[in-house]
Fold this sequence. Notes:
Elements: H1 2-60, H2 74-79, H3 83-113, H4 120-128, H5 135-145, H6 154-166, E1 176-177, E2 183-185, E3 191-193, E4 202-208, E5 231-238, E6 260-265, E7 268-274, E8 280-284, E9 292-295, H7 315-340, H8 344-352, H9 357-385, H10 389-394, H11 406-415, H12 421-451
Parallel strand pairs: 4-5
Antiparallel strand pairs: 1-4, 2-3, 3-9, 5-8, 6-7, 6-9
Amino acid sequence: MASKDVGSVEVLELGGTARKRRRRSGIQGSGGRRAALFLWPCAILLVLYIVYPIAFSLGRSLFDASGEEFLGLGNYIEAFSDERTLVAFRNNLVWLLVAPTLVTALGLLFAVLTERVSWATAFRFVLFMPMAISLFASGVIFRLVYDEDPDLGVANAAVVTAHDMFASSAEFPGAEPRDEAGMAATGDGGYRSAELVRPGEVVAIPMVGLRDSEMPEHAQQATILEPTVGELRGYLWRDVGSSGQDGAVGASEAGLPGVTVHAVRDGQVVASTTTADDGTFVFPGLADGGYTIRLPAENFAEPFRGLTWLGPGLVTPVIISAWIWIMTGFAMTFIAAGLSAIPREALEAARVDGATEGQVFRRVTVPLLSPVLLVVFVTLAINVLKVFELVYVVAPGSSQAEANVLALQMWQVSFGAGGDQGMGSALVVILLLLVVPAMLFNIRRFRKARSG
């Protein structure tokens, strides 16, 4: 009887459980129908804004620019043979290999370094702020940052400042002697006397091509030297014709100070000096014979103006640097969240076992963070494949072809001068095929993490 009682209890309990399950399934079924009522608007919007555009683009890609002639895969074949599209593919590959890797690495570095500092929240807030700015506005900012004019571009202002700390700029860029001075161009930007001069003679060199703003403040009134036995002498001045005669020193004409002057004999520089504040120079103690007076090109070279950041050679790395500045805060925030979820016992156990901080980072922190790092990397890769605004805004027209990416190429082909929406739709489909695998991988990772 006891066993029967137990059995009856078990039967009763099983029966109760079955009834509970039936009730729950009834509730879930009813709840599912209610949920479907709320999901229908979302499903309609999903079809209108995602499914239909994809289907339409796929169909449109099979026709020509007018949309009347069926081409089949013709647009796709042309896309993979067009030089501009191939450049876009190459640049997208560079973006995909470089940008997500650097952003993920920087995000990991900043997340780890700021984990134990008191101002971590403020630092992360500042680093995340670029995410609040649209990519278009960020492009305008970096177009100014990398402007070639050092007075506008911050990058070139810093480069020019660093350069001028180690190499002085020419005092008189663009200046040149008058034809009456008897000086000939050397071919490298400098000048030399056309005839030989000897000690005891005076060389007068009137210079033109200078504005008032280019004259140094310490320049003094030009001095006319007289011949002296045993000395080769001369003077340079800014000749503006104030005396009423070109090639003659006027009352208000200043000498050119700081100009390097060489005395050359048999092709060798035997003496060198610089002009005084009044533009005079003297070579004492020269041996008898003929000399050539040479003004090196360094006196008249244009000042260093920095690098052409937005030229064809550097424009893609420059745009990638702008994207890194924008997205590093995003990566850091996600990685910091993953870092806070790591069991501290694992880290402390590694330290107790004698591991250094570097070993703890490489062998414990990074392996435990690998799922988060992978999700961040794939998300950034998806973002990189769709990059458009930065390239469109930062790259000037002269180098936009070298900075081209698939999204920009699609826009130019579809809505630019060609107006070929058949080819543009083919590029859209290609871009979609490149993005979808990364999206599916991310979705799979999220589902696995949720179920785990």
